[in-house]
């Protein structure tokens, strides 16, 4: 029943968490409370969103940037979660 880290990080990165139903949003929040990886990820996204806008003016972080960050975090999560490689 628990959401996976990958699912959580994807929802955060894509910003589609807002479109989720109530139960899913609760799951997401609970996951974030319990999972340091995803918590850190959410913080990074927030920082990226604000920081990037401040740095480059009015530009939002691009989907590519978010995707890259998402992949990096997923790699970290996966290598923690007992992946065979690395
Ligand atoms: Zn997680």
Task: Present the secondary structure layout.
Layout: H1 5-14, H2 22-34, H3 36-56, H4 63-80
Helix pairs in contact: 1-3, 1-4, 2-3, 3-4
The protein binds zinc ion.
Could you characterize what this model shows?
This protein is an all-alpha fold and 86 residues long. It has one domain (5-80). 72% of the residues lie in helices and 0% in strands. The chain contains four helices and no strands. The protein has helices at residues 5-14, 22-34, 36-56, 63-80. α1 runs parallel beside α3, α2 (22-34) packs across α3 and α3 packs antiparallel against α4 (63-80). The longest helix has 21 residues, at 36-56. It is globular and about 30 Å long. The mean pLDDT is 76. It binds zinc ion.
What are the defining features of this structure?
binds zinc ion
Indicate how many domains the architecture comprises: 1
Give the C-alpha Rg.
14 Å
Structural class label: mainly alpha
Ends apart, CA distance between termini? 28 Å
Largest sheet: none
Query: Averaged pLDDT, please?
Result: 76
Strand content: under 5%
């Amino acid at each position: 029943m628990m959401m996976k880290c990958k699912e959580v990080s994807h929802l955060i990165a894509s910003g589609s968490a807002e479109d989720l139903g109530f139960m899913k949003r609760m799951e997401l929040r609970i996951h974030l409370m319990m999972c340091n990886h995803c918590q850190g990820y959410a913080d990074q996204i927030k920082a990226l969103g604000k920081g990037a806008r401040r740095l480059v003016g009015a530009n939002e972080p691009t989907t590519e940037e978010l995707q890259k960050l998402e992949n990096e975090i997923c790699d970290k999560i996966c290598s923690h979660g007992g992946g065979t490689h690395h």
